[in-house]
Amino acid sequence: MQFLHVMARCCLARTITVVSLTVSLSAVGLLTSSCHFLHPLLQPLRKVSYSVYPAHWFHLYSVNMSSYYDSKEKSHHSKALTSPYPGSSVERSKVPSDKVDWLVEWKDYSPVEYTAASILAGPKWADPQIRNPVGRTGLVGRGLLGRWGPNHAADPIITRWKRDKSSSKIAHTVSGKNILQFVAIKRKDCGEWAIPGGMVDPGEKISATLKREFGEEALNSLQKSAAEIKELEKQLDKLFNQEHLVVYKGYVDDPRNTDNAWLETEAVNYHDESGETMDNLPLEAGDDAGKVKWVDISEKLKLYANHSHFIKLVAEKRGAHWIEEPVTDCQK
């Protein structure tokens, strides 16, 4: 019996390998066949079907989504249901709003399978096919994403106060709060405005990704000369080495998400209080960006994926203007 317990612990240790910024799917590894010998108590888990998991199993091992969205935001699972899938003509299987949650039994769920040829031709990772923590998306496979499970990104939110010609902060006429601006890029792939972020390279620290992606997409650093890059680095170090706010860590409602692969990000706000640092960093679109500019922050913003949610969090933390319409007595 002692031998059995030792072997069971060995199997668990070998199979529970997926680590994300905010998601711990500790039991999914039990579904793989890497351990040919399981403790008898664990055998039933090998028989769990793809579309329907026992309710008690999911209550035991389901992801705690409180770090992703508040109760109001949890219902926002729309970009991950986008059809056709980005960069293709592949249509997702239709997922009714009442069937998104994995806890809802749906025996006939048969999602379309799609992994882009560019991904299939790339390096093969040994990550297991695990489940989207928010719910069904109508598509299995990796789509345009390189890894099974969480694909980690980083989003640098660079802000400054909007000022008039005399350098005084400009307050909004409705809210009376100062207007905050952030650097936005227009994505080449879909034409939507977004935060100039990107994917974390293997072994790269988040802080390095934030600075690198901002330099590549908002300052066109990949096309600079060695002398220009050296000067650019000095200014970027000044901006990215100051105090900053981590405004969000977790799942991104991204149109590239599938049942088996999804985006997670860390959104970090770097604020240039005086505006002087950014004055020495002229914006120039590069890499995946078609355009780049300063954008006024307000609730009217329409951005890629759920980037508007990240920007809202920044406005709240900085005490900046957000709500455009005046609040009436009935709304109070």
Describe the overall structure.
- Residues 215-242 form a coiled coil.
- Keywords: Coiled coil.
- One of its GO terms (cellular component) is mitochondrion.
- The protein has 332 residues and is of the alpha+beta class.
- The protein has a domain at 149-318: Nucleoside Triphosphate Pyrophosphohydrolase, CATH 3.90.79.
- 21% of the residues lie in helices and 18% in strands.
- It has 7 helices and 9 strands, in the order H-H-E-H-E-E-E-E-E-H-H-E-E-H-E-H.
- The chain has helices at 2-15, 55-61, 117-120, 206-218, 226-240, 276-279, 307-318, and strands at 112-115, 139-143, 149-161, 180-187, 193-194, 198-199, 245-252, 261-271, 289-296.
- The strands form 2 sheets. Strands 3, 4, 5, 6, 7, 8 and 9 form a 7-stranded mixed sheet that branches. It has a two-stranded parallel ribbon with strand order 1-2.
- Helix 4 packs across helix 5.
- The longest helix is centred in the C-terminal third of the chain and has 15 residues, at 226-240.
- The radius of gyration is 23 Å and the shape is globular.
- The termini are far apart.
From the structure above, extract its key features.
single chain; about 325 residues; alpha+beta; Nucleoside Triphosphate Pyrophosphohydrolase; 7-stranded mixed beta sheet; two-stranded parallel sheet; 9 strands; about 20% helix; about 20% strand; globular; NUDIX_hydrolase-like_dom_sf
Task: Provide a quick synopsis of the model.
With 332 residues, this protein is of the alpha+beta class.
What's the pLDDT, averaged over the residues? 80
How many E-type strands?
A: 9
Q: By helix and strand content, what is the structural category?
A: alpha+beta
- Output the CATH topology of the domain at 149-318: Nucleoside Triphosphate Pyrophosphohydrolase
Helicity range:
10-25%
Give helix and strand order, one letter per element, not per position: HHEHEEEEEHHEEHEH
CATH class of the domain at 149-318: Alpha Beta
Distance from N terminus to C terminus (CA atoms, Å) equals 65 Å
Catalytic activity: ADP-D-ribose + H2O = D-ribose 5-phosphate + AMP + 2 H(+)
Coiled coil: 215-242
GO molecular function: ADP-ribose diphosphatase activity
Organism: Crocodylus porosus (Saltwater crocodile)
